[in-house]
Amino acid sequence: MEKRNLTIFITGASSGIGRETAIRLAKEGHKVFAGIRRKIDKEEIENLNENIQGVYIDVTNAASIEKAFWFVMKNAKSLDVLINNAGIAVGGPVELIDVKKLKEQFDVNTFGAVAVVQKFMPLLHNSRIINISSMAASGVFPFVAPYCASKRALDILFNSFALENKDNIKVISIKPSSVKTPIWNKSVKKAREYFTNISEEAKNKYEKQLLSIEKKALENNENAIETYFVVDKIIKVINCKNPKPSYNVGNQAVVAEWLSRLPLSISNRLIIKFLNSSK
Ligand SMILES: NC(=O)c1ccc[n+]([C@@H]2O[C@H](COP(=O)([O-])OP(=O)(O)OC[C@H]3O[C@@H](n4cnc5c(N)ncnc54)[C@H](OP(=O)(O)O)[C@@H]3O)[C@@H](O)[C@H]2O)c1
Hints:
Rossmann fold, single chain, binds NADP nicotinamide-adenine-dinucleotide phosphate, 54% helix, 10 helices, alpha/beta
């Protein structure tokens, strides 16, 4: 792709990977439509670079997606790149997870991305869609199954889209390892709220694991890779002539993919061993 003056729309640009990506792309001279949900985030990000224009979008809300589409349509003839980045992380044992929370997980990470692409199709001819998936798409992480499933489903849906679409749209899935962003603290906060309301019996049954997941999520935040590793990969994918359909970012993602390719009986044994050793 031409390296300058591309038009790019990224969802979830108020913090973390989305924010850093929007800033870097704008600094490289591209026109960036940065998806945000609050006025304060719009002002903040627009003040950072004149190439950034904030666009209100809640990917779970059809009316909001429609408004965002018309805003971008009025301000750009087409998009070169659409980055589906907006995401949340819902965790917890499958036995206890509230189905409403499970739906919310899919509404944002999976159905939201599909809804955005469906609406933005008139702007996407000959473009690239970059999905910020996750190493979690490998599906090898117990206690965060909602998040893993939402990312796996995202990859499956968009791999089909890549094969089906008639508009020469390339799809690239980026699968980062744990990255230092606010997502982990947000998900722990939400999980704490939710798991205080479950029965004492359920609490006792999973207490150790819940504490251990919480600890791991907070450690993820400490030991994770820096955001720029993911941003570098996104920029590489935008600039390279023939991007691959999928990229891992960081060693954890490589190991997760490797584990997912083992027979389930072997990978499950390894995962149980790991869980027991880290109690
Ligand atoms: N951090 C990691 O370890 C990691 C690893 C692999 C993949 N990822 C993926 O990277 C992407 C970005 O996450 P991040 O780590 O940068 O976390 P983050 O800082 O929490 O960013 C998430 C972004 O998504 C937005 N968002 C949440 N719900 C939304 C909705 N309904 N509509 C529109 N925007 C919404 C948030 O906006 P508000 O501020 O308005 O809530 C925020 O801008 C996610 O898809 C995540 O799954 C993260």
